[in-house]
Amino acid sequence: MRTTALTLAVVTSALLLAACSSASPSTISSAATSTTSPTTVATVTDAPTAETPPATDVTTTLDPCQLVTSAEASALSGVTYGAGKENSSSNGFKSCVYSVPGHSLSVEVSQATDAAAAQAEWSAQQSAAQAALKKQLPPGVDAKVTIGSVSGLGDKAATIHASVNVMGHSAATNGIYVLTAAKFFAFEDLTIGGTVASPAAMEAQAHTTLGRVG
User: Fold this and answer.
1) What is the pLDDT of residues 3-62, one digit of tens each?
2) Would you list the DSSP string of 103-166?
């Protein structure tokens, strides 16, 4: 099961692409990762690389655009989104992306064959996320990543805040990741030069979404 999207590598990669894109970007897309006890990385000194996601054995029937609605996404990001763009992969992973110039919110959902398989994949992605922090970033790039755990939300839950500054362009993201039985969902708010959703707002939405996941 693709429990943690693509790991911290993709989060930082997305931030780098967003920050380097231009001062007036058209759209940005977000993917994120992470599961671990609270950790702060003051400066990430290695270049992230995306990983091939593990196969998902079950195609989820959940609709990511209904797990976080357009109105809810708009409230989190502080912008007005239209309908989300839904995507699905051959391994059963689904996503929904809401975007306007300079801001996006993405929602992901996937499902494993059973809870034990989901727990194992969560642990594997936790290790991959830590390994991603050890790869070298290009000169002149300053990235900061804070990872935390959340209690009382599903079976396991984690948060991430990441920011990057490249050649005068800044980008930031807040993400939350939840595992409940064999199901996983996540959503990330990503912005260039703006303000991301607060951790409290993200956690409140995660509780609402958890009720829809069942």
Assistant:
1) 444 344 445 445 545 555 443 344 333 333 333 333 333 333 333 333 334 444 688 889
2) EEEEEEEEE-SSHHHHHHHHHHHHHHHHHHTTSBPPTTEEEEEEEEE-SSSSSEEEEEEEEEEE
